[in-house]
TrEMBL record:
CDD domains in the cross-refs: NAT_SF (cd04301)
PROSITE patterns tied to this protein: GNAT (PS51186)
Biological source species: Gossypium aridum (American cotton)
Coiled coil: none
InterPro entries in alphabetical order: Acyl_CoA_acyltransferase (IPR016181), GNAT_dom (IPR000182), Plant_NAT (IPR052810)
GO MF term list: acyltransferase activity, transferring groups other than amino-acyl groups
Domain N-acetyltransferase residue range list: 8-163
Name this protein carries in UniProt: N-acetyltransferase domain-containing protein
Protein backbone atom coordinates (compact mmCIF):
# COMPACT_ATOMS: atom_id res chain seq x y z
CA UNK A 1 0.00 0.00 0.00
CA UNK A 2 1.30 3.47 -0.84
CA UNK A 3 1.47 5.94 2.02
CA UNK A 4 2.31 9.14 0.15
CA UNK A 5 5.39 9.85 2.27
CA UNK A 6 7.56 6.93 1.27
CA UNK A 7 7.85 3.30 2.32
CA UNK A 8 6.47 2.11 5.66
CA UNK A 9 9.25 0.53 7.71
CA UNK A 10 8.44 -1.70 10.68
CA UNK A 11 11.33 -2.67 12.93
CA UNK A 12 12.22 -3.44 16.54
CA UNK A 13 12.22 -0.64 19.08
CA UNK A 14 15.60 0.95 19.82
CA UNK A 15 15.63 2.68 23.20
CA UNK A 16 18.43 5.09 22.34
CA UNK A 17 16.86 6.36 19.13
CA UNK A 18 13.14 5.84 19.70
CA UNK A 19 12.37 6.49 23.37
CA UNK A 20 11.53 10.19 23.08
CA UNK A 21 9.55 9.72 19.87
CA UNK A 22 7.51 6.85 21.30
CA UNK A 23 6.71 8.93 24.37
CA UNK A 24 5.56 11.72 22.09
CA UNK A 25 3.30 9.34 20.16
CA UNK A 26 1.86 7.94 23.38
CA UNK A 27 1.03 11.44 24.60
CA UNK A 28 -1.23 12.16 21.61
CA UNK A 29 -2.95 8.77 21.50
CA UNK A 30 -5.98 8.20 23.70
CA UNK A 31 -6.92 4.76 25.04
CA UNK A 32 -10.56 3.91 24.37
CA UNK A 33 -13.32 5.25 22.11
CA UNK A 34 -12.69 8.87 21.11
CA UNK A 35 -16.31 9.94 21.72
CA UNK A 36 -16.11 9.10 25.44
CA UNK A 37 -13.76 9.96 28.31
CA UNK A 38 -10.44 8.26 27.62
CA UNK A 39 -7.14 7.54 29.31
CA UNK A 40 -3.73 8.94 28.56
CA UNK A 41 -0.76 6.81 29.63
CA UNK A 42 2.39 8.28 31.15
CA UNK A 43 5.14 5.65 30.89
CA UNK A 44 7.46 7.60 33.19
CA UNK A 45 10.23 7.67 30.61
CA UNK A 46 10.18 3.93 29.86
CA UNK A 47 8.02 3.00 26.84
CA UNK A 48 8.45 -0.74 27.46
CA UNK A 49 7.40 -0.52 31.12
CA UNK A 50 4.19 -2.50 30.56
CA UNK A 51 5.95 -5.53 29.06
CA UNK A 52 9.43 -5.67 30.55
CA UNK A 53 8.35 -7.88 33.48
CA UNK A 54 7.10 -10.62 31.13
CA UNK A 55 9.27 -13.68 30.33
CA UNK A 56 9.68 -12.74 26.64
CA UNK A 57 8.68 -9.44 25.09
CA UNK A 58 9.08 -7.32 21.98
CA UNK A 59 8.14 -3.86 20.79
CA UNK A 60 7.83 -2.83 17.15
CA UNK A 61 7.71 0.68 15.73
CA UNK A 62 6.40 1.88 12.37
CA UNK A 63 8.34 4.61 10.54
CA UNK A 64 7.16 6.60 7.56
CA UNK A 65 9.33 9.23 5.91
CA UNK A 66 11.58 9.26 8.96
CA UNK A 67 8.64 9.92 11.29
CA UNK A 68 7.53 7.44 13.92
CA UNK A 69 3.82 6.84 13.26
CA UNK A 70 2.93 3.64 15.14
CA UNK A 71 3.95 1.18 17.86
CA UNK A 72 2.86 -2.22 19.13
CA UNK A 73 3.97 -4.47 21.99
CA UNK A 74 3.81 -8.19 22.57
CA UNK A 75 4.65 -10.74 25.26
CA UNK A 76 5.02 -14.52 25.29
CA UNK A 77 4.47 -16.98 28.13
CA UNK A 78 3.30 -20.50 28.95
CA UNK A 79 -0.18 -20.84 30.46
CA UNK A 80 -2.78 -23.47 31.19
CA UNK A 81 -5.37 -23.43 28.44
CA UNK A 82 -8.14 -26.01 28.22
CA UNK A 83 -7.57 -27.39 24.77
CA UNK A 84 -7.27 -31.09 23.95
CA UNK A 85 -5.05 -33.03 23.92
CA UNK A 86 -2.64 -30.91 25.99
CA UNK A 87 -3.33 -28.45 28.78
CA UNK A 88 -0.34 -26.07 28.45
CA UNK A 89 0.03 -23.64 25.57
CA UNK A 90 2.47 -20.94 24.56
CA UNK A 91 0.48 -17.75 24.09
CA UNK A 92 1.35 -14.34 22.73
CA UNK A 93 -0.37 -11.26 24.09
CA UNK A 94 -0.82 -8.09 22.00
CA UNK A 95 -1.07 -4.72 23.71
CA UNK A 96 -0.16 -1.08 23.29
CA UNK A 97 -1.16 -0.71 19.63
CA UNK A 98 -0.93 2.99 18.81
CA UNK A 99 -1.11 4.81 15.48
CA UNK A 100 -0.67 8.57 15.20
CA UNK A 101 -4.09 10.21 14.60
CA UNK A 102 -3.00 11.76 11.28
CA UNK A 103 -1.98 8.33 9.90
CA UNK A 104 -4.97 6.20 10.88
CA UNK A 105 -7.16 4.30 8.38
CA UNK A 106 -4.17 3.59 6.15
CA UNK A 107 -3.49 -0.02 7.19
CA UNK A 108 -0.60 0.78 9.53
CA UNK A 109 -2.28 -0.87 12.51
CA UNK A 110 -2.90 -4.13 10.64
CA UNK A 111 0.69 -4.13 9.35
CA UNK A 112 2.00 -3.79 12.90
CA UNK A 113 -0.20 -6.66 14.14
CA UNK A 114 0.86 -8.88 11.23
CA UNK A 115 4.55 -8.22 11.89
CA UNK A 116 4.12 -9.01 15.57
CA UNK A 117 2.31 -12.24 14.68
CA UNK A 118 5.28 -13.19 12.50
CA UNK A 119 7.51 -12.82 15.56
CA UNK A 120 5.10 -15.00 17.55
CA UNK A 121 5.26 -17.70 14.85
CA UNK A 122 9.07 -17.60 14.89
CA UNK A 123 8.89 -18.17 18.67
CA UNK A 124 6.59 -21.21 18.24
CA UNK A 125 3.54 -19.56 19.80
CA UNK A 126 0.29 -21.57 19.73
CA UNK A 127 -2.25 -18.78 20.20
CA UNK A 128 -2.21 -15.01 20.22
CA UNK A 129 -4.81 -12.94 22.08
CA UNK A 130 -5.69 -9.35 22.84
CA UNK A 131 -8.08 -7.41 25.06
CA UNK A 132 -10.22 -4.42 24.19
CA UNK A 133 -13.33 -2.62 25.37
CA UNK A 134 -16.45 -4.28 23.96
CA UNK A 135 -17.60 -0.98 22.41
CA UNK A 136 -14.24 -0.14 20.83
CA UNK A 137 -15.53 -0.51 17.28
CA UNK A 138 -12.23 0.31 15.55
CA UNK A 139 -10.31 -2.33 17.50
CA UNK A 140 -13.05 -4.93 16.98
CA UNK A 141 -13.13 -4.37 13.23
CA UNK A 142 -9.37 -4.62 12.96
CA UNK A 143 -8.84 -7.80 14.96
CA UNK A 144 -12.09 -9.72 14.39
CA UNK A 145 -13.35 -8.61 10.99
CA UNK A 146 -9.98 -8.16 9.29
CA UNK A 147 -7.35 -10.27 11.06
CA UNK A 148 -9.35 -13.39 11.94
CA UNK A 149 -9.55 -13.18 15.74
CA UNK A 150 -12.60 -14.61 17.49
CA UNK A 151 -14.31 -13.71 20.75
CA UNK A 152 -12.92 -15.74 23.60
CA UNK A 153 -13.82 -14.44 27.08
CA UNK A 154 -15.55 -11.39 28.57
CA UNK A 155 -13.97 -10.63 31.95
CA UNK A 156 -15.33 -7.95 34.26
CA UNK A 157 -13.10 -5.03 35.27
CA UNK A 158 -14.03 -3.70 38.71
CA UNK A 159 -12.73 -0.27 39.70
CA UNK A 160 -12.93 1.12 43.22
CA UNK A 161 -11.75 4.68 44.01
CA UNK A 162 -9.53 5.12 47.04
CA UNK A 163 -10.83 7.42 49.75
CA UNK A 164 -7.71 8.87 51.40
CA UNK A 165 -9.79 10.42 54.19
CA UNK A 166 -11.66 7.37 55.38
CA UNK A 167 -10.77 3.75 56.20
CA UNK A 168 -12.85 0.78 55.10
CA UNK A 169 -14.27 -1.39 57.84
CA UNK A 170 -12.75 -4.83 58.39
CA UNK A 171 -14.84 -7.32 60.32
CA UNK A 172 -13.47 -8.29 63.71
CA UNK A 173 -14.79 -11.81 63.08
CA UNK A 174 -12.05 -12.50 60.53
CA UNK A 175 -8.31 -12.83 60.71
CA UNK A 176 -5.96 -11.61 57.97
CA UNK A 177 -2.55 -13.14 57.39
CA UNK A 178 0.18 -12.24 54.92
CA UNK A 179 1.61 -15.38 53.30
CA UNK A 180 5.20 -16.14 52.54
CA UNK A 181 5.91 -16.22 48.79
CA UNK A 182 6.51 -19.96 48.79
CA UNK A 183 3.23 -20.61 50.61
CA UNK A 184 1.30 -18.33 48.26
CA UNK A 185 2.77 -20.03 45.20
CA UNK A 186 1.89 -23.46 46.59
CA UNK A 187 -1.73 -22.40 47.18
CA UNK A 188 -2.10 -20.90 43.72
CA UNK A 189 -0.70 -24.02 42.07
CA UNK A 190 -2.98 -26.23 44.13
CA UNK A 191 -6.21 -24.34 43.51
CA UNK A 192 -5.75 -22.32 40.31
CA UNK A 193 -3.30 -24.25 38.14
CA UNK A 194 -6.17 -25.83 36.20
CA UNK A 195 -7.90 -22.53 35.44
CA UNK A 196 -7.62 -20.65 32.16
CA UNK A 197 -4.53 -18.56 31.56
CA UNK A 198 -2.77 -19.56 34.79
CA UNK A 199 0.92 -18.67 34.14
CA UNK A 200 3.41 -21.49 34.52
CA UNK A 201 5.96 -19.04 36.00
CA UNK A 202 3.65 -17.99 38.85
CA UNK A 203 6.58 -17.82 41.23
CA UNK A 204 8.23 -15.09 39.16
CA UNK A 205 5.11 -12.93 39.48
CA UNK A 206 4.96 -13.30 43.25
CA UNK A 207 8.68 -12.56 43.61
CA UNK A 208 8.54 -9.45 41.46
CA UNK A 209 9.21 -6.20 43.36
CA UNK A 210 5.87 -4.83 42.10
CA UNK A 211 3.96 -7.60 43.86
CA UNK A 212 3.17 -6.16 47.29
CA UNK A 213 2.17 -9.48 48.80
CA UNK A 214 -0.49 -12.16 49.15
CA UNK A 215 -3.01 -12.21 51.98
CA UNK A 216 -5.56 -14.73 53.22
CA UNK A 217 -8.64 -14.16 55.36
CA UNK A 218 -10.43 -16.75 57.47
CA UNK A 219 -12.75 -16.89 60.52
CA UNK A 220 -11.27 -16.12 63.91
CA UNK A 221 -11.04 -19.18 66.09
CA UNK A 222 -9.69 -21.29 63.23
CA UNK A 223 -6.02 -21.77 62.38
CA UNK A 224 -4.33 -21.39 59.03
CA UNK A 225 -2.18 -24.48 59.63
CA UNK A 226 -5.21 -26.49 58.54
CA UNK A 227 -7.24 -25.06 55.65
CA UNK A 228 -10.24 -23.37 57.36
CA UNK A 229 -13.87 -24.13 56.59
CA UNK A 230 -14.07 -20.77 54.76
CA UNK A 231 -11.18 -18.75 53.37
CA UNK A 232 -10.22 -16.25 50.67
CA UNK A 233 -6.96 -15.05 49.18
CA UNK A 234 -5.67 -12.36 46.84
CA UNK A 235 -2.46 -10.68 45.77
CA UNK A 236 -1.68 -7.02 45.07
CA UNK A 237 0.41 -5.51 42.25
CA UNK A 238 1.57 -1.88 42.31
CA UNK A 239 0.99 -0.82 38.69
CA UNK A 240 1.61 2.80 39.61
CA UNK A 241 5.32 2.05 39.91
CA UNK A 242 5.39 1.32 36.17
CA UNK A 243 3.16 3.96 34.63
CA UNK A 244 0.55 6.58 35.45
CA UNK A 245 -2.86 7.28 33.93
CA UNK A 246 -4.76 10.50 33.30
CA UNK A 247 -8.37 10.97 32.25
CA UNK A 248 -9.20 13.08 29.21
CA UNK A 249 -12.30 14.32 27.34
CA UNK A 250 -14.30 14.71 30.55
CA UNK A 251 -17.28 17.12 30.67
CA UNK A 252 -16.63 20.33 32.62
CA UNK A 253 -19.55 19.50 34.90
CA UNK A 254 -17.79 16.32 36.03
CA UNK A 255 -14.57 18.26 36.61
CA UNK A 256 -16.35 20.85 38.79
CA UNK A 257 -18.20 18.17 40.75
CA UNK A 258 -14.94 16.37 41.46
CA UNK A 259 -13.21 19.52 42.68
CA UNK A 260 -16.16 20.56 44.86
CA UNK A 261 -16.44 17.10 46.46
CA UNK A 262 -12.74 17.20 47.33
CA UNK A 263 -13.05 20.64 48.92
CA UNK A 264 -16.05 19.55 50.99
CA UNK A 265 -14.22 16.45 52.13
CA UNK A 266 -11.16 18.50 53.08
CA UNK A 267 -12.80 21.37 54.94
CA UNK A 268 -16.07 19.80 56.09
CA UNK A 269 -15.21 16.15 56.84
CA UNK A 270 -18.14 15.91 59.26
CA UNK A 271 -20.50 15.70 56.28
CA UNK A 272 -18.91 12.37 55.31
CA UNK A 273 -19.65 12.80 51.62
CA UNK A 274 -17.97 10.36 49.21
CA UNK A 275 -14.86 11.98 47.77
CA UNK A 276 -14.03 11.54 44.09
CA UNK A 277 -10.30 11.19 43.32
CA UNK A 278 -8.60 13.67 41.02
CA UNK A 279 -8.25 11.74 37.77
CA UNK A 280 -7.30 14.83 35.75
CA UNK A 281 -3.71 14.66 36.96
CA UNK A 282 -1.54 11.53 36.52
CA UNK A 283 -2.42 8.79 39.00
CA UNK A 284 -1.34 5.26 39.86
CA UNK A 285 -3.35 2.22 40.84
CA UNK A 286 -3.16 -1.11 42.63
CA UNK A 287 -4.20 -4.23 40.74
CA UNK A 288 -5.73 -7.11 42.69
CA UNK A 289 -5.07 -10.51 41.13
CA UNK A 290 -5.36 -14.18 42.02
CA UNK A 291 -8.71 -13.82 43.83
CA UNK A 292 -9.83 -17.21 45.09
CA UNK A 293 -11.38 -18.92 48.08
CA UNK A 294 -13.81 -21.52 49.32
CA UNK A 295 -16.56 -22.00 51.90
CA UNK A 296 -19.88 -20.38 52.82
CA UNK A 297 -18.21 -17.21 54.14
CA UNK A 298 -16.11 -16.66 51.02
CA UNK A 299 -17.94 -13.49 49.96
CA UNK A 300 -17.55 -11.73 53.30
CA UNK A 301 -13.92 -12.83 53.53
CA UNK A 302 -12.96 -11.53 50.10
CA UNK A 303 -14.69 -8.22 50.87
CA UNK A 304 -12.68 -8.01 54.08
CA UNK A 305 -9.47 -8.52 52.09
CA UNK A 306 -10.46 -5.85 49.56
CA UNK A 307 -11.17 -3.41 52.39
CA UNK A 308 -7.71 -4.16 53.75
CA UNK A 309 -6.17 -3.37 50.36
CA UNK A 310 -8.16 -0.12 50.25
CA UNK A 311 -6.77 0.91 53.62
CA UNK A 312 -3.28 0.01 52.49
CA UNK A 313 -3.73 2.16 49.37
CA UNK A 314 -5.27 5.07 51.29
CA UNK A 315 -2.00 5.50 53.16
CA UNK A 316 -0.24 6.12 49.81
CA UNK A 317 -2.05 9.15 48.36
CA UNK A 318 0.58 9.78 45.70
CA UNK A 319 0.87 6.14 44.61
CA UNK A 320 -2.70 4.92 44.32
CA UNK A 321 -6.05 6.55 43.56
CA UNK A 322 -7.99 3.50 42.39
CA UNK A 323 -7.96 -0.25 42.94
CA UNK A 324 -8.62 -2.42 39.90
CA UNK A 325 -9.67 -6.07 39.88
CA UNK A 326 -10.33 -8.18 36.79
CA UNK A 327 -12.27 -11.42 37.21
CA UNK A 328 -13.92 -14.01 34.99
CA UNK A 329 -17.20 -12.86 33.49
CA UNK A 330 -19.13 -15.68 35.14
CA UNK A 331 -17.45 -15.31 38.53
CA UNK A 332 -20.59 -13.76 39.98
CA UNK A 333 -19.87 -14.63 43.61
CA UNK A 334 -16.65 -12.59 43.55
CA UNK A 335 -18.24 -9.69 41.68
CA UNK A 336 -20.99 -9.39 44.29
CA UNK A 337 -18.50 -8.91 47.12
CA UNK A 338 -15.55 -7.03 45.59
CA UNK A 339 -16.15 -3.32 46.30
CA UNK A 340 -16.38 -1.28 43.08
CA UNK A 341 -17.97 1.80 41.59
CA UNK A 342 -20.36 0.64 38.88
CA UNK A 343 -20.00 3.87 36.88
CA UNK A 344 -16.22 3.39 36.70
CA UNK A 345 -16.20 -0.36 36.07
CA UNK A 346 -16.60 -2.43 32.91
CA UNK A 347 -19.00 -5.36 33.14
CA UNK A 348 -17.66 -6.90 29.92
CA UNK A 349 -14.11 -6.50 28.73
CA UNK A 350 -13.47 -8.42 25.51
CA UNK A 351 -10.68 -10.95 24.94
CA UNK A 352 -10.17 -12.19 21.38
CA UNK A 353 -7.96 -15.10 20.36
CA UNK A 354 -6.43 -16.54 17.19
CA UNK A 355 -4.62 -19.79 16.42
CA UNK A 356 -1.20 -19.47 14.79
CA UNK A 357 -0.75 -23.17 14.03
CA UNK A 358 -2.72 -25.24 11.53
CA UNK A 359 -3.04 -28.19 13.90
CA UNK A 360 -4.61 -25.95 16.55
CA UNK A 361 -7.23 -24.32 14.35
CA UNK A 362 -9.65 -27.23 14.68
CA UNK A 363 -9.48 -27.06 18.49
CA UNK A 364 -9.92 -23.27 18.47
CA UNK A 365 -13.66 -23.59 17.85
CA UNK A 366 -14.02 -25.98 20.77
CA UNK A 367 -11.87 -23.74 22.93
CA UNK A 368 -13.99 -20.66 22.26
CA UNK A 369 -17.37 -22.39 22.60
CA UNK A 370 -16.78 -24.55 25.66
CA UNK A 371 -18.02 -23.11 28.99
CA UNK A 372 -15.28 -21.05 30.69
CA UNK A 373 -13.92 -21.98 34.09
CA UNK A 374 -15.28 -19.84 36.91
CA UNK A 375 -11.85 -18.45 37.70
CA UNK A 376 -9.85 -16.66 35.02
CA UNK A 377 -6.32 -15.69 35.94
CA UNK A 378 -5.37 -12.22 34.77
CA UNK A 379 -1.60 -11.72 34.71
CA UNK A 380 -0.72 -8.40 36.41
CA UNK A 381 2.29 -8.07 34.10
CA UNK A 382 -0.09 -7.50 31.19
CA UNK A 383 -2.36 -4.86 32.71
Amino acid sequence: MGYGSGELIIRSYNAQNDRVRVEGLESICEVGPADKPFLFTDTLGDPICRIKNSPIYNMLVAELGGQLVGVIQGTIKLVTLHKPPKNVAKVGYILGLRVAPAYRRHGIGSRLVTKLEEWFVACDVDYTYMATEKDNEASYKLFVNKLGYVKFRTPAILVNPVNHHRSSQISSNFKLTKLKIEEAESLYRKYLSSTEFFPIDMGNILRNKLSLGTWVSYPKGETWGKIPTSWAMLSVWNSGELFKLRLGNVPISCFMYTKSSQLIQKFLPCFKLPSIPDFFNPFGFYFIYGVYGEGPLYGKLVKSLCNFVHNMASSKPKDCKVIVTEIGGNDTRSKLHIPHRKSMSCSEDLWCIKSLKNEDRKSLHKLTTMPPTRALFVDPREV
